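Exam revision sheet. Question 4 asks you to relate a sequence to its structure. Input first:
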Amino acid sequence: MNQYIFTSKQRNVLIGAMGIGIISMVLTWMNDDAFHTRFWSNFLHNSVFFLGISVMAAFFMAVCVTAYAGWHTTFKRVWEAYSSYMYVGVFFMLILGLGVYMHWHHLYHWADESLLDPNNPEYDKILHGKSSFLNKNWYFFGTIIVVGSWIFFSRKFRQISLDEDKNGDTSYSHHKNLKVYSAIFLPIVGFSSAAMIWQWVMSLDSHWYSTLFAWYTATSWFVSMISLTILLLIWLKSNGYYKEVNDSHIHDLGKFLFAFSVFWTYLWFSQFMLIWYANIGEETIYFRERYDNYPVLFFGNLIINFLVPFLILMRNDTKRKFGSVGLVSIILLLGHWVDFFLMIKPAALITANHALHSLHSGEHGAEHAADPHAAHGAEHVSAFVEGFTLPGLLELGTFLGFLGLFLFVGLYSLSKAPLVPKNDPYLEESLHHHV
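Answer key, structure tokens:
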């Protein structure tokens, strides 16, 4: 079968998953603090995570095209389908951007413009120095411009691919156009994704920075994208589709899963150990917070996302076993979702507590501000905070809802074209791929 049929049963299952996500978000809102920090941080967490997976799908397609690679051709429509989620992803990020404008949330410390006033007793010189980048206009309009450019190129990839199916010929003109667009897209997405990662995620810890953070985050996205690709291909094959995809294709995807898990670990080590060794205060504080107050997630992150794929996928034949590589893919998809949880939640909690402390101070005056219970808001303490110290059921439910939406959009797109691109010049290479 070369045409995927998106059945009503599959739609209902994914709609059910989205329903669980909506219910989880409603319950989170109803049981949240004054600024609904748990709700908004969950929304940011999943919006960034799944948008990044979509971007990495388009990115890796462009990499394969410019590298004259053909091994992926039989299933490249899966990556085309994943990249279609960017339309939804940018909508969610713009909601967060409007939230900065309208003060719907207090996720970003830099969004408090009063801190940029030199006459304010709480004037923040560091944030003032970063304000040309960390501001509501760049967050909102920068997201439109940058993600809009990603959508433009991913749409061109899809259009060229579909037109090649209908009008492809021996001149390979379609594929030549695809190479041109891919070559233009790669430097654009390389630089702009770093800027967006800094804006959306790193700026949550607005006084902190790392020159490796964009690499680290993008690698986490990439591993998640490969994991989700493997899982979808295994599921499609089990339902009679993609008979052209053989164990060598899965083996190559497993190699990428293994290699970039090791690369992610290298970046983890480089950020944590080397910054700690240098003992630079403005860089160490990010890890100090997570090391002291989130030790289960901090070290569990390394165990799940490095040791599990390293030990299981080290053997060459394991990468060919659908059961083994599928299990690792599930673990890594959840593991890197937790990785983003750890990037976002500690900073969001500190900023929200600071805002709550300021609110209480304003409402009750200096006497209340001196109260130790009110001062609790200024900094995170080592007590357990539901939905922040560890992911709770509502976080998992929200993840399930976003995953259901991502797969719904992806499978709907997948059903709109033949699964195997019949006129792609690299198709024969992919059909006979063997390693």
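Marking note for examiners. Residues 364-381 have pLDDT under 50 and may be disordered.
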